[in-house]
TrEMBL record:
It comes from Enterobacter roggenkampii. This is Integrase.
Amino acid sequence: MRPLMPPVQTPDNLFHDGNPLTGELGTIVDAEHLNNVQGAVRDAQSELITVLNAAGINVDPSKQNQLLTALKALLLSRSNPFGDIKSDGTVKTALENLGLGDNDGFVGRLLAPPMRLTASGVYNPSPEAKYALVELQAA
């Protein structure tokens, strides 16, 4: 991508209409400026077309959603959701970042407040529980 093109060469870097009554001249647009504009536009188009091509989309002047479609195709995989997390070996970190895991690799959520057991007995988990993480501490 090209660097930012220079502004038009006027004292305030803006274009101005002339005023024939006062003799004020309008901004003269020279070839350098127009070439900069053309180069910047073509460069931006090339960058965007590269994104479309990477998503397998051919440029279609009648559509106004091609970039969004390409970004969704490239960034939001629906055929293998979160597959990149698994292939990167970062499942544990991702679960911790989402608040779905702890430092021991346990995945789940707290369904009830912690219980303090004071005698022997049977623990009956809630119907939503599939697993239980039990920590025992001596009194």
